[in-house]
UniProtKB/TrEMBL annotation:
Active site positions: 132 (proton donor/acceptor), 229 (proton donor/acceptor)
Pfam families named in the record: AP_endonuc_2
Keyword Isomerase listed: yes
Any GO MF annotation of the entry: hydroxypyruvate isomerase activity
Annotated InterPro entries: HyI-like, Sugar_Epim/Isomerase, Xyl_isomerase-like_sf, Xyl_isomerase-like_TIM-brl
Protein's name according to its UniProt entry: Hydroxypyruvate isomerase
Chain segments annotated as transmembrane: none
Key words of the record: Isomerase, Pyruvate
Keyword Chloroplast in record: no
Limits of the Xylose isomerase-like TIM barrel domain: 21-214
Top-level taxon of origin: Bacteria
GO biological process, one term: glyoxylate metabolic process
Length: 248
């Protein structure tokens, strides 16, 4: 298990390449991106990851104004282009996983489109593909907005490469006091965890997370990395120290 700095949320006062160095200086041994790398100098990014000894846990397909495109009817060509672009970056940077975003849609054919697009993506790579359940409170209109929708997708497409990105902030919003139990029930499908304070997506200090030891046990049991994707008010090194301290 590694703690991963999400560079879409942390160190955002710096240009994207410099965030990699900042994460290493703060004590992280892994990072994850949104879709910034697709428009960056890949040689530079690869060199920084190598020089700092950082693992790349995951990166996103392009987000755009629709928060992805995988479930958008009529946008199949766009999805394929965006996925192949993300795959090229993942291969160049040796990313463990690619996060596929479904996009915002309420059209009836969205699930069928998503399944076809996922079959295409699975046929292109043996890397882990992640789907994230995102709370409607955080992103209105996002298609993958409940654990039940994720379960329906993996029931229809039971491929072990297809995994859940379990974000504590979103699961807490959706499931309340049952969030940890719900995540544990989905353990066989988990591919990555993300952490933020449940109430406001703030600094996830261990003392503010009653479920922390349960989440840590889940991560250890399933060999999952934990991405810190939160709105920082404290130095990330302080949050990292808090979580590591409670892990001893």
């Amino acid at each position: 298990m590694e703690f991963s700095a999400n560079l879409g949320f942390l160190f955002t006062d710096l240009p994207f390449p410099q965030r990699i160095t900042a994460a290493a200086r703060a004590g992280f041994r892994a990072v994850e991106f949104h879709d910034q790398a697709q428009s960056s100098d890949l040689r530079l990014i690869a060199g920084l990851l190598h020089d700092e000894g950082l693992k790349l846990c995951s990166l996103n397909c392009a987000m755009g104004s629709t928060a992805g495109s995988a479930a958008l009817p009529g946008e199949e060509a766009r999805f394929r282009a965006e996925f192949l672009s993300a795959l090229e970056v993942a291969e160049a940077l040796d990313a463990r996983a690619i996060h596929i975003m479904t996009g915002r849609t309420s059209e009836a054919g969205a699930e069928a489109v998503l399944l076809r697009n996922l079959e295409f993506a699975l046929g292109c790579t043996d890397r882990r593909l992640l789907l994230e359940v995102i709370s409607p409170a955080a992103m209105p209109g996002y298609w993958m907005n409940s654990p039940e929708r994720f379960e329906a997708v993996v029931a229809a497409l039971p491929d072990p490469q297809l995994r859940l990105m379990g974000d504590w902030y979103h699961f807490s919003s959706l499931c309340g006091a049952a969030a940890l139990s719900r995540l544990c029930g989905l353990a066989p499908h988990l591919g990555h965890l993300q952490l933020a304070r449940a109430e406001d997506r703030g600094d996830p200090l261990a003392e503010d997370l009653p479920a922390w030891l349960g989440l840590r046990a889940l991560a250890m049991e399933r060999d999952l990395d934990i991405g810190l994707e939160y709105r920082a008010s404290l130095p990330p090194a302080e949050v990292l120290s808090s979580l590591r301290g409670r892990a001893l």
